[in-house]
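>> Question from a student workshop board

For tomorrow's exercise we were told to take the sequence and the ligand below, predict the bound structure, and bring the output to class. My setup keeps failing. Could a helper post the expected result so I can at least see what it should look like? The ligand is iron/sulfur cluster.
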Amino acid sequence: MSSTLPSNLHKEILITGFGGQGIVLAGQIVGKASSLLDHNESTLTQSYGPESRGGYCSAQVIISEKTIHYPYVRHPDILVCMSQGGFDKYGASIKADGTLILDQDLVKVEEVKCGDIFAIPATRIAEELGRKMMANIVMLGFFTAITGAVSLEATRATVADSVPKGTEALNLSAFNKGYDFGLATLKGRRKKAAGKKGVGA
Amino acid sequence: MDKLKIVLFMCNWGPHAAYQALQDSGADIPAEVRMIRIPCTGRMSKALLFRAFEMGADGVALVGCEPGTCRYGSGTAVAEGNVEDTRGILDLLGLGGDRLRLAMFLPEESQPLLAFLQDFYKVIETIGKSPVSIPPREAPPAVTREMVSQLLTTHDIYACQDCGKCSSACPVTLAGKPFSPRAMANAIIGGSVAAPEVVNDVWSCLTCGLCYDRCPSAVDFPDFIRDMRHIQKVCGRTGHEAHGGFFQSLMRTMTSPDLKIRHWQWLPEDIQTDPQSKTLFFGGCAPYFDTYFKSHLGVQTSGILVDSLRLLNFFDIYPAILSGERCCGHDLLWSGDQENFRRLAQLNVEAIEAAGVEEVVTACPECYRTLSHDYPEQGIELKFKVTHIYDLAEREIDKGAIGFEKLDRNLTFQDPCRLSRLEGRPDLPRKLLHRLQPESFTEMKDRGISALCCGNCAWTGCDSYTKTLQVKRLRQARETGSNMLVTACPKCQIHLRCAMEDPFLGDEIKMEIMDLTTVLAKTIRWE
Ligand code: SF4
Ligand code: SF4
Ligand code: SF4
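>> Workshop helper replied:
Here is what the output should look like for this input. Compare the format with yours to find the bug.
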């Protein structure tokens, strides 16, 4: 499958969660995939909040066709939240037409002004696959399918390259699971928009 | 062109007098018509009517008495039902229902009878010769000691330790029948293959496989029985077919290569299929079952095929279907007719491969087992893979964004022996069952790999003991407190519904039945 990236690509992405979830690694993979394989520019900044301030950590990634002059993300186009703390802190910063992506079992959203919300039980899926710590990779697969900001091939290849040796196959299956979930989610929305919820005419 | 063969089944009473009058006056009865006297049109079962076509008849006329003049009261009404259903079967087979006609005459109506016969002859002449051609059977050899001992060795029946675990699990034995797989095996080892009790036992087994599951020596009774039946058949013995052997006769007829079968002509229009697809949906014989049982059980097993296709469409899969699809042959194989089984298998595989198909999807556990397991085992290689629709559905649903609407029923589940036991996959339907949103789901006492049979396999050996077994099974289902029995095989549904018709037990064993595929299709939703 070859995916086509949007032209005039410029996406400011904020990935948040708590320490140990592999948030920064996820940010690195997005950035690397976009710059090294999709041939764009990218920047990554990371920040950790101490436990006393809610235990969040975040990765700010910008990917763009043009040179990036300012590496900090104030108002993300895409906000990925893998913890409630991360959402509580950054939820309000999302752009009005931005895309919010959640781990549905870990984050409850009251009200937020944004373009669209997509949710996946990434941690649960990772647990079912046998390793909770792969939740970030499941999320990456979902992110790739939903946003199309990075190409499938580039992200897959970067995942294989970035995870510990010997765990590539397992991580790729986690990635695929998330990706399939993303495709299914989009398909479900299309069907519903066409007025087709269930089986039949 | 060969001469046409037109069979006239003529009731002894009313119309025969008219026929005799024609003969006496030397009337111009078409020479192709061969008359067979019968005691009453009501005695001509669907099996007998159809048998004439299996044997190469080009047309069959059933001629009886006007309603009200039937000597036995209900004969004509019964004949009307039988003829209508058999015509439906002939239509599905592509032979054409017009080849079978029912007519009624009073004793003095010899001229109208003559007109009828001449007209029927013209009709058959227009339709032409029947494409049914079944190779003649070779003269049966006698059962030899070698044939039997070879089977005993192949299936390692000698490994039996005489522990009796099989008999204590066998549902037929437990239904009270003087039947024991162990004793039968011993008798066959002892050399009494031809003894009436042994022959009887060979046809009584349900090939359900429960004994095999329990046997510490892994003696595979179902396979052994299957091959013992083959020996019996090769040697010219008759089996204990239910429904007068109608279904076996139907399947043998389907081995005629020139039949232009119209398996899917009834399919609703909203179903989307694609002749170019590399995925083929193999439906199975449900349309024949529904036609056969229309006026009796009112079964709707074709709904399973429709719902399977709707489910595939839901997943954006638009499969090919084979208009000339034939029976997979399961019931021929399991009732001892390996020769015709292979013919069917060959024709199916050729048609599937000619359609350029890479994957065959089926919702019938028997088709699934037969295509994926028995075809290769019986020497018919496949270039395509066979997938049960539950595997496909599970895979698609597992991708996410699909959920199920609430279902206001309390469910229990009847395992299909071919999938749950013979293929060892009781978990597969359960994965899907657990995704559903019913009020409750309660397993029966005997379930999964230990489940009780629905009471029949391969339309063979249906009797009062298997009926007892079915009643026991339905009581188990009711004991769960559920109000819907979910099935996963069209035949479980047919046989269990049949048992529910019992007039004496009435509502005690009645229960709503729905196939799992239908439940899935009814409640699946994009989320
Ligand atoms: S369970 Fe097996 S070993 Fe035991 S009596 Fe039956 S066939 Fe023989
Ligand atoms: S296969 Fe089933 S019916 Fe046949 S002997 Fe074994 S348990 Fe009894
Ligand atoms: S249980 Fe009923 S439907 Fe099944 S074989 Fe016996 S008579 Fe026929």
